[in-house]
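fyi for ur records
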Amino acid sequence: MTTILVTVSLILAIFSGFLCWQVLEQRKLIRHMMESDDIENPEQDPELVLTLRVLDPIAIAKRESRSARVLADRLPVMVRKMVYQEVMKELESELAEREIDVEMHIEYR
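which gave:
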């Protein structure tokens, strides 16, 4: 019985040492990544970014515009771009009315 307890204790000690080594390696990796990314103030909270995606821009364009009904089937990329631009304009005007300063961009992914 003593042999089993000693064996289990050794296995647990080895496993604990392995976990400690992993934590130390991870700290080194994080420190290296922060140095290579030139992060000046690591205590500073990360910047929050809001992402908006229109789920069905073609349907919205067809619903809101007569000309889009004709163009949507022939030029879907242009119609999507126009929908996003219009949504962006409406959001900017709504936020300006409420005196909320924002910086908006359209990103292509």
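The CA atoms of residues 51 and 86 lie 16 Å apart. thats all i got for now
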